Amino acid sequence: MREAAQAADVQVVHDLAVGTDPEGADAWALQDVLALGVTVGAPPDAFNQRGQAWGLPPWLPHRLDATGYAAYAQLLRALLRQADGLRIDHVAGLWRLWWVPPGESPDRGTYVHYDADVMLAVLTLEAARAGALVVGEDLGTVEPEVTEGLARRNMLGSAVLWFTRDEQAPGMPLLPPDRWPDRAVATISTHDLPTAPGFLRGEHVRARAELGLLDDVAAEQDTADRERRELVELLRAEGLLTGADPGEDQILVAMHALLARSRSRLVLVSPYDVVGEERQPNLPGTVDEYPNWRLPLPLGLEELRADPRVRVVVDTVRLNRVNQAGGGRSG
Fold first, then answer.
1. Distance between CA 319 and CA 330 in Å, rounded?
2. Could you tell me if 164 and 188 are in contact, meaning their C-beta atoms sit under 8 angstroms apart?
């Protein structure tokens, strides 16, 4: 696959998940260095008010150390053998992971720490050997040392439109694109967050409310409405929206123009955001309650290529990216 991609001048970036299926072959082979029976997850936060349990066993820190981090290094080596880059899911897990004990709810978990210097050293060594780019998903409940640690090693973090805010200003407003982090991969959303159409329509509130994942639905809806207005105001301030009542299609194109204007090193566009899919691919905090990873795109590959919405967004991103790189702006 990598050879075919290189022939087409396409780079392949693999994904390193935060864990493995506890009943799979990997867990069986690595049982000496995994805490089987425990699950990793995340504490309660604004998007998942009851916390998350992902059903994946974590590394045992003392066993990693005793075995010279061999299993971790071999995993990285295997992934990078066929990749030009590696995206690390929940990269804060190289520093600490939220462990949820057997039979407990996610809010009853605790953080278990790892030797981040060693974890990063192994990652840096394997990436350097492979000549690969490394991207860390430093989103959610993440300490500043995570993003700083990635930057010191010339690795990229993640900049997501919903979260890229001025944390020093009252109300933490959205940052304009020229203030986004440069050592990052910029996206509108992620697979664990609402799609662009879903955000504009409030689908992320409706879905979580229907499944009983919200403590105060009215307050969450108020927040969603306020954040939508805030986004539209930023797009207007950047000269990307005109008219008193812009339609959803116009807003979606403007959002991609905003993304392309960011200072971030790389920009990624998701087909979900372009073709009107309102359901997010994965809804954290659910297992069978939601069709996680089972939501196909509404269009096939050839239909996607021919869709005029795709062409408009691609052209918009290219134009604004070129202007951003050259120091110019387009309206």
1. 8
2. no
Query: Residues 221-259, buried b or exposed e (16+ Cβ, 10 A)?
Result: eeebeeeeeebbebbeebebbeeeebeeeebbbbbbbbb
CB atoms within 10 A of CB 110: 12
153 is written with which tokens? 């090693």
127: closest CA among 94, 90, 84, 157?
Answer: 84
Q: How far apart are CA 216 and CA 212, in angstroms?
A: 10
* Dist CA 263 CA 105 (whole Å): 40
pLDDT in tens, the chain (331 residues): 667 766 767 788 999 999 999 999 999 999 999 999 999 999 988 777 788 899 999 999 999 999 999 999 999 999 999 899 999 999 999 999 999 999 999 999 999 999 999 999 999 999 999 999 999 999 877 899 999 999 999 999 999 999 999 989 999 999 999 999 999 999 999 999 999 999 999 999 999 999 998 889 999 999 999 999 999 999 999 999 998 889 999 999 999 999 999 999 999 999 999 999 999 999 987 888 999 999 999 898 899 989 999 999 999 999 998 777 665 443 3
DSSP string for 235-257: HHHTT---SSS--HHHHHHHHHH
Q: How many CB atoms lie within 10 A of CB 162?
A: 18
With 0-12 CB in 10 A as exposed, 13-18 as middle and 19+ as buried, what is 14? middle
What's the distance, CA 112 to chain centroid? 22
Looking at CATH, the fold of the domain delimited by 2-324 is given as TIM Barrel (3.20.20)
CB atoms within 10 A of CB 297: 15
